[in-house]
Amino acid sequence: MIKQRKIELLAPAKNLECGIAAIDHGADAVYIGAPKFGARAAAVNSLEDITALVNHAHLYNARVYVTVNTILKEEELPETEQMIWALYRIGVDALIVQDMGITQLNIPPIPLHGSTQMDNRTPEKVKFLADCGFRQVVLARELSLDEIRRIHEATPVPLEVFVHGALCVSYSGQCYVSQACFGRSANRGACAQFCRLPFTLLDADNKAISREKHYLSLKDLNQSEQLEQLLDAGASSLKIEGRLKDVSYVKNVTAAYRQKLDAIFKRRSEYIRASSGTCTYTFKPQLNKSFSRGFTNYFLHGRGEDIHSFDTPKSLGEEMGRLKEIRGNYLTVAGVKSFNNGDGACFMDEQGKLQGFRINKVDGNKLYPQEMPRIKPKTLLYRNFDQEFERVLSHKSSDRKMAVSILLAENNFGFSLTLTDEDENNITLALPYEKEVARTPQLENIKKQLGKLGNTPFEAERIDVDFAENWFIPASVLTEYRREAIEKLITARRINYKQEKSVLKPTTHTYIREELTYLDNVSNSAAVSFYQKHGVQSIAPAYEQKPEEGVALMFCKHCIRFSMGWCRVHQQVQSPYKEPFYLQSSDGRKFRLQFDCKNCQMKVFAV
């Protein structure tokens, strides 16, 4: 017998609206920011909204994970403890955490997931967290399939892997440049997006190699064609990034990945979905219709050539064709795709800068811009806002239905109606009613009335009527009967939902290192206590507590030297410029680049 593994599609929620949209478009789980202490300070949510999301998700056996994944100050520990109890009481399924001090608090039996900001990239680290009682671990985005597979083979803990969305150029949890430059800690949820800024690349003699390029800006992750390989490597939770993204992004991307996964499940019976229901959409999900800086598989298959987005950190969108000519107040375009009135278009100008314009009217291959852009023939055009696509997504764009079997049977007192859903939840409702033989056949009319499930979360898979005679029941009675039965089935589903309990037991197994530096982000006494109990002898404070001079502020798998074609290891090419290289921002700040070829890593230092 094939051993089956549940596969979870995990979608982001900026707010309640996005969370409900994610569930309705096929997510098996949603992650959402807590009222405080989440790694996106701009995406916090009230307990009331999280409660509403929990109630909606649990109806479909989908889960809600709440991010409490910042490092915590000493004075914040009591408030964090109280908030965790409140989240547990409203039915939240798990917390995504970074600060190990949380494990030392008096917390309820709620599962903990290890955030990617814990820098989870080795079998030893992931196994340590699993042995601590963590129920799921979010891996670093930089890992290859082989690295994921080795971690999976080392421990049975479910592995959460990013599959789509924006990429941080530094290993998560290992970026301190925002704190150093702007007093805004990425580990405290206030990243200043330093990596999206333009820089001038300088050599050791202060000579400009290239100016005003976004050297630390990466393309967006897109593993939609690699999902089966990820599952085979051991991933169980496939995570879409985007807790700051709008609802149309969540709808489109979630639906696209839902369809990809469902197609795999039809072929691979060892993989099954982690929640209930089937989705239908009023649109065709297309990943290039939503915000992206271009797509990359990042390091999934090893180091590749095309992961960066040096020209712009903004969304390019989908390639549409080339400009043929400019005629008076319109442009003519050669392309296979058609624009719509109201679309947003963009292009790279001769200086390599992204420019955009709005299209007022489209007439065949003629575009009438709101303002005529400065553009030359043969320029490649992109659409970064599809008016028609967004219009469809602004309305109800999906239905998620669970299959239900309906049986109407007679008994000595009248009739009974039994509903059984796809998860084997069932209810029976008695209907005392005086039997009366109908003058005309009633079977099809009865089935039609019982099958009108409309705006309910159910769809009739089978309807049976078990009568000895052709009994008459008024349509109004059947309608009320069906409505009451559906309400009882919904109640039964909510009662039968099992909130997982996970009691953290004290552990003392040895941590992977005896000495901790600023890179381990220890910022309170509870975290210190945790590491001491696990054999750590020396613990330095977090960078946010005590900034150190001369230390690396970013640790990047992305390498500028490789991107320029000058990697001594992979490309075996010597740079024509004298090192070290520097990045200089528009405000005059300089940052030295160090290339750690042994670990295939680039480090960034403030000068």
Key features?
23% helix; 6-stranded antiparallel β-sheet; 8-stranded parallel barrel; TIM Barrel; alpha/beta; globular; 30 strands; Thrombin, subunit H
Short description:
By secondary structure, the chain is of the alpha/beta class. Helix content is 23%, strand content 28%.
Account of the 3D structure:
The protein has 607 residues and is α/β, with parallel strands linked by helices. Among the domains are: 5-167 and 219-275 and 283-289, Alpha-Beta Barrel (TIM Barrel); 316-393, Thrombin, subunit H (Beta Barrel); 403-496, no CATH class. Helix content is 23%, strand content 28%. It contains 13 helices and 30 strands. Strand 22 (414-421) and strand 23 (426-432) form a beta hairpin. Helix 5 runs parallel beside helix 7 (227-233). The longest helix is centred in the C-terminal third of the chain and has 22 residues, at 475-496. It is globular and about 100 Å long. The model has no long low-confidence stretch (mean pLDDT 96).
Span from first to last CA?
A: 61 Å
Enumerate the strands of the largest sheet in spatial order, edge to edge or round the barrel.
Answer: 1-2-3-4-5-6-7-11
CATH architecture of the domain at 5-167 and 219-275 and 283-289: Alpha-Beta Barrel
- Rg: 28 Å
CATH hierarchy class name of the domain at 5-167 and 219-275 and 283-289: Alpha Beta
Query: Which percent bin holds the helix content?
Result: 10-25%
What is the number of beta strands? Answer: 30
Structural class: alpha/beta
Unreliable stretches (pLDDT < 50, length at least 5) are: none
Any idea of the CATH topology of the domain at 5-167 and 219-275 and 283-289?
Answer: TIM Barrel
